Amino acid sequence: MKNYQSIVQIAKERKAVLGISLEQIAAHTGLGYRTVTRFFAGSDVKVSTLAKITALLGLDLNGESLMDPQVLRKRRAEKKARHLVSLVQETSALEMQGLSDPSLELLMEEAERALLHGSYRRQLWAV
User: Fold this and answer.
1) Which residues of 56-86 are buried (b: 16+ CB within 10 A; e: fewer)?
2) Which residue spans of the chain are classified as CATH 1.10.260.40?
3) Using one digit for the tens of pLDDT, what is the confidence trace for 38-51?
4) Measured over all CA atoms, what is the biggest interatomic distance in the chain, rounded to whole angstroms?
5) What distance in Å separates the CA atoms of residue 54 and residue 11, rounded to the nearest whole number?
6) SS3 of 113, please?
7) Distance CA 92, CA 97 (A)
8) Looking at the whole model, is its pTM more than 0.85?
9) How large is the average pLDDT for residues 85-106?
10) What is the CA angle 45-69-61, rounded to 5?
11) Are 25 and 62 in contact (CB under 8 A)?
């Protein structure tokens, strides 16, 4: 079993690889920003806090990887692209010009690509 400081260090490294900010971690976990900051500073936090942060980062409570960072980023991009495209579809439907399934699929792929590799990379974890 790793010591707490090792787990914090692994979490810091994973955070950097994923390109997620402390503010975004707080928003995605429902934790306060100060709590997230305390964890990454190496201060003791509740086990539930540790669990929420490590789960978001694709780690277990011992800092072991549960999911490859690239898979985690891809899943986040898919989820966010689906949300963005649903907003477009809802707006189009209100205007009686709903998009066809192939158009929606293409829009999803383009949104994912932009979130993973394009100009919207910084928005991948934005809430």
Assistant:
1) bbbbeeebeeeeebeebbeebbeebbeebbe
2) 4-67
3) 999 999 999 999 99
4) 58
5) 7
6) helix
7) 5
8) no
9) 67
10) 30
11) no
Tell me phi and psi for residue 59, to 5 degrees.
-120, 160
| Alpha helix ranges (H) inside the chain | 4-18, 22-29, 33-40, 47-56, 69-94, 101-116
Q: Which CATH number fits domain 4-67: 1.10.357.10, 1.10.3720.10, 2.60.40.10, 1.10.260.40?
A: 1.10.260.40
Residue 65 phi/psi, 5-degree rounding, is -70, 130
Two tokens, residue 55 = 């789960």
What confidence score (pLDDT) does residue 94 get? 46
Report how far residue 127's alpha carbon sits from residue 120's, in angstroms, rounded to the nearest whole number. Answer: 13
Q: How far apart are CA 118 and CA 107, in angstroms?
A: 14
Residues 6+ apart with CB under 8 A from 126: 24
Is 61:50 a contact under the CB 8 Å cutoff? yes
